[in-house]
Design a protein that fits this description.
A 4-stranded mixed sheet has the order 1-2-3-4, covered by helices on one side. About 30% of the residues are buried. Helix 4 packs across helix 6 (about 135-155) and helix 6 runs antiparallel to helix 7. The chain is of the alpha/beta class. The chain starts with a helix and ends in a 10-residue tail after the last helix. A hairpin with a 2-residue loop joins strand 1 and strand 2 (about 20-25). It is globular. It folds into 2 domains: about 1-85, no CATH class; about 105-200, no CATH class. The protein has helices at about 1-10, 30-45, 80, 85-105, 110-120, 135-155, 155-165, 170-175, 180-190; strands spanning about 15-20, 20-25, 55-60, 70-75.
């Protein structure tokens, strides 16, 4: 019944805007429409406006994993279909890739060099990192922003539990969850102008 409703709804509206965000189900499949519906619901549950950097979103069942560019695209993996917390966390993660590129100070090489100076022993092989050293260095900040904002929205304990159970970027998430690293991470966020307020502004 629910899937039929979603299919009919999709035939009427391919796009829907919540708080200025356009979310498109690329193939209008039931799974895409469920993710689309849940993303719209999350916009209503939480005020995500401070962390929306790109307002054009696609949901594509053919996407192997979520990606930030060229259009922020959410996939329909089971973890996102079954958990709004995983969906919210991943959505924020992809937004923060946009944030680093659009709002960060300095060049990419300066950004990554500064992170490497603080974290010289990078484990970049999958699933520890992104597969490259440079990408993994960038993910240290992206994942830290993901964790800090998610903590603000659902609480630190729930955010830590969510992130610690991810089966990807495992070394990165262990690094950003370690309290001993938080002072260094806060300083990097400040240095590159990536804070959203509070201690990271």
């Amino acid at each position: 019944m629910y899937s039929k409703f979603l299919t009919v709804f999709a035939l009427i509206f391919s796009f829907h805007s919540v708080a200025g965000i356009s979310i498109k189900a690329v193939n209008n499949s039931d799974d895409e429409l469920k993710i689309k519906y849940e993303l719209e619901s999350l916009q209503k549950t939480y005020d995500l406006s401070p962390w929306i950097i790109t307002d054009s979103i696609e949901v594509d069942e053919k996407a192997r994993t979520p990606r930030s560019h060229p259009v922020l695209t959410m996939s329909t993996q089971e973890e996102y279909l079954n958990s709004n917390t995983k969906l919210l966390s991943s959505f924020l993660h992809e937004q923060f890739h946009w944030h680093v590129i659009k709002n960060g100070r300095g060049s990419k090489s300066e950004f990554r060099a500064a992170i490497k100076a603080e974290f010289p022993n990078v484990q970049f092989e999958r699933p520890f990192g992104s597969g490259t050293e440079g990408g993994t260095l960038s993910h240290i900040i992206v994942c830290y922003l993901e964790y800090t904002v998610l903590s603000e929205l659902i609480g630190k304990e729930s955010a830590s539990k969510n992130i610690s159970t991810n089966e990807y970027y495992t070394w990165v998430y262990q690094t950003i969850l370690n309290p001993i690293n938080h002072n260094k991470l806060d300083k990097l966020v400040q240095k590159f102008g990536l804070g959203f307020g509070g201690k990271n502004s």
